[in-house]
From TrEMBL:
It comes from the Bacteria. This is Lipocalin-like domain-containing protein. The lineage of its organism: Bacteria, Pseudomonadati, Bacteroidota, Flavobacteriia, Flavobacteriales. Keywords: Signal. Residues 1-20 form the signal peptide.
Length: 127
């Protein structure tokens, strides 16, 4: 019985690590705002720009982008470890629609991605 308990504990421990990794990006994310980097400061929100946007990261490696609830793109995405342009540190990177982003924040309610280039513009999504 003791061995069975230990086996279940180990299984659930590894299962929790697996769900906490970068695969948690899989969901529907609604755009809240974008903030320009130091060389191009700006603030854009659905209200200031005049449209809504959402992205859906699927479990089969696709990202579907919607503008005002109309699908505008369906493309592949890739998540991998890599070096962030701004701080030269290792981060989880997501590449889609021809651009690479540092995953700055990812939790149950928030996704913040930063352009992995000199500009470093930030895009914030909520669930």
């Amino acid at each position: 019985m003791k061995h069975l308990f230990i086996s279940f504990t180990v299984f659930f421990l590894f299962a929790s690590f697996n769900t906490a990794d970068s695969s948690s990006i899989i969901n529907t994310w609604t755009w809240e705002k974008s903030v320009g980097g130091s060389s191009n400061p700006y603030l854009a929100t659905p209200k200031t720009i005049g449209f809504t946007k959402k992205v859906i990261f699927t479990s089969n490696g696709r990202v579907i982008t919607y503008k005002n609830n109309v699908e505008i793109r369906n493309s592949a995405y890739q998540i991998e470890k890599g070096i962030g342009y701004v701080d030269q540190a290792e981060h989880d990177l997501v590449t889609f629609e021809g651009k690479t982003y540092v995953i700055e924040k990812l939790d149950n309610q928030n996704l913040t991605i930063v352009s992995n280039n000199q500009d470093g513009s930030r895009t914030i999504f909520k669930r």
